[in-house]
């Protein structure tokens, strides 16, 4: 941290010498500065030492482009992930002042997570800010003199209700203990951690086995050139990407999560709006999520700890539009398990873009060093976690009786491709006989273009 923190005010002259737009208090100038360069006059990033053992030594993450901070930034991108675009719309529409700074009073975490060794390890955490939940405590000096700093994590507590949990309670599969499951309606107390992505580019590049320059160029090109400083500012190593984040759901006392002497049940779940929310039966996502939550609750009730982590990676990070296009190709081409991945590859070019290499960062942040029961069949998730030095003692597949009939195509194809199972593995010949429900009475068509 600098010996003296300069006051950040919106009245600082613009880089071009022009007055602000709209009013003297506007943080933008009439001159649009598309990018900056390391040796440009006035460019002086606030020091940022990724991997430092504590927040004050590491320094604050400053990404705001307002006039008072434009040349002092030490990060590219914008807070809010994909929601940064809505923030821009609100300002353009006049609903949000351009110089608005949040009032963070009383927003501090409801549980003070103990500092973990991984928070100061630049190899273990590269995709989130380990100090992003406590900006108010760690960098109050900056906030008090006008710097625009934003938390990238938040910790709260709530009750949650899930139909499957209510059913489990009514059937006696889960007990009402008054602490975790609080009543017969299946209301469950949970500690929640929301997290936006914050990427340390050298570390992200290393995880993917590419050089930093290649990573920067691809990010620049494939965001439509939206972030030119990926190219012009190699000295800026932190990037806040416009993508979705994750939410951690902790069942039982959160202090147990990092205790290696306490058994831990964990479900890593990637977003599936159609199944998770609207309960489409073409995949196993909602049933596996509900099973994961139930097992996490049981582990917590038995004196252990239960964690479910929900990543915003819709449609294997291919998006919902691609997912629905694949559904069409599957149903019109004869929906069999042996061609399950082919439909996706034809449209997206790859089977899966979730790339689990960054996923274990949140486990390191939580202090998890071993997982007693991993509620997942994914070999990608398993390999990524074990590669980060976290032990997995048992892998737990979804029970057969929870698999919807129409989703046998998906689950049997995945098992054949290497997913963990304790049940039957099908041959390619047998997979061709596993067929999903068609569109009878909707659209009785089989490969109308004759290409599949």
TrEMBL record:
Start and end of every GTP cyclohydrolase N-terminal domain? 30-222
State if Nucleotide-binding is listed as a keyword. yes
Q: What are the recorded Gene Ontology BP terms? A: riboflavin biosynthetic process
Q: Which UniProt keywords are present, listed alphabetically?
A: GTP-binding, Hydrolase, Nucleotide-binding
Q: Does the keyword Cytoplasm apply?
A: no
Q: Where are the stretches annotated Disordered?
A: 1-25
Gene3D superfamilies reported in the protein's UniProt record: GTP cyclohydrolase II
The UniProt record lists the GTP cyclohydrolase II domain at 261-397
Q: Which GO terms describe its molecular function?
A: GTP binding; GTP cyclohydrolase II activity
Q: Which Pfam families would you find in this protein's record?
A: GTP_CH_N (PF12471), GTP_cyclohydro2 (PF00925)
Give the family this protein belongs to, as stated in its UniProt record.
Belongs to the GTP cyclohydrolase II family.
**PANTHER family (UniProt xref):** PTHR47259, URACIL-REGULATED PROTEIN 1
Kindly provide the name given to this protein in its UniProt entry.
Answer: Uracil-regulated protein 1
Which taxonomic lineage does the organism of this UniProt entry have?
Eukaryota, Fungi, Dikarya, Ascomycota, Pezizomycotina
């Amino acid at each position: 941290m600098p010996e003296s923190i300069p006051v950040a005010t919106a009245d600082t002259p613009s880089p071009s010498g022009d007055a602000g737009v709209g009013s003297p208090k506007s943080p933008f100038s009439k001159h649009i500065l598309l990018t900056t360069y390391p040796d440009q006059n006035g460019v002086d990033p606030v020091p940022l030492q990724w991997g430092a053992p504590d927040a004050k030594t590491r320094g604050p993450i400053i990404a705001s482009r307002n006039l008072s901070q434009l040349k002092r930034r030490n990060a590219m991108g914008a807070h809010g992930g994909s929601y940064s675009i809505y923030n821009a719309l609100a300002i353009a529409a006049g609903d949000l002042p351009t110089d608005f700074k949040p009032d963070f009073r009383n927003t501090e975490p409801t549980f003070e997570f103990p500092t973990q060794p991984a928070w100061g390890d630049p190899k273990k955490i590269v995709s989130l800010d380990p100090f992003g939940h406590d900006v108010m405590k760690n960098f109050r000096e900056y906030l008090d003199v006008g710097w625009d700093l934003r938390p990238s994590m938040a910790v709260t507590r709530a009750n949650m209700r899930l139909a499957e949990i209510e059913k489990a309670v009514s059937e006696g599969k889960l007990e009402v203990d008054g602490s975790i499951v609080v009543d017969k309606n299946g209301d469950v107390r949970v500690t929640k951690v929301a997290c936006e992505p914050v990427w340390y580019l050298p570390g992200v590049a290393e995880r993917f086995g590419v050089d930093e320059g290649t990573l920067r160029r691809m990010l620049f090109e494939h965001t439509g050139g939206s972030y030119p400083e990926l190219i012009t500012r190699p000295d800026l190593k932190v990037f806040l990407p416009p993508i979705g984040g994750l939410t951690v759901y902790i069942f039982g006392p959160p202090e147990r999560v990092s205790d290696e002497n306490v058994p831990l049940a964990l479900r890593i779940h990637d977003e599936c709006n159609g199944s998770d929310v609207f309960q489409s039966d073409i995949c196993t996502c909602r049933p596996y999520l509900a099973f994961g939550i139930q097992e996490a609750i049981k582990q917590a009730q038995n004196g252990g700890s239960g964690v479910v982590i929900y990543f915003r990676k819709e449609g294997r990070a291919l998006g919902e539009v691609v997912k629905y296009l694949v559904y069409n190709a599957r149903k019109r081409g004869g929906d069999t398990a042996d061609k399950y991945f082919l439909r996706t590859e034809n449209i997206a070019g790859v089977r899966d873009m979730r790339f689990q290499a960054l996923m274990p960062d949140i486990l390191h942040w939580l202090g998890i060093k071993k997982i007693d029961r991993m509620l997942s069949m994914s070999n990608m998730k398993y390999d990524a976690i074990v590669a980060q030095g976290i032990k997995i003692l048992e892998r737990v597949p979804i029970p057969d009786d929870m698999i919807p009939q129409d989703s046998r195509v998906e689950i049997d194809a995945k098992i054949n491709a290497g997913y963990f199972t304790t049940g039957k593995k099908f041959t390619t010949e047998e997979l061709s006989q596993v067929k999903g429900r068609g569109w009878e009475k909707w659209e009785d068509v089989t490969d109308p273009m004759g290409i599949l």
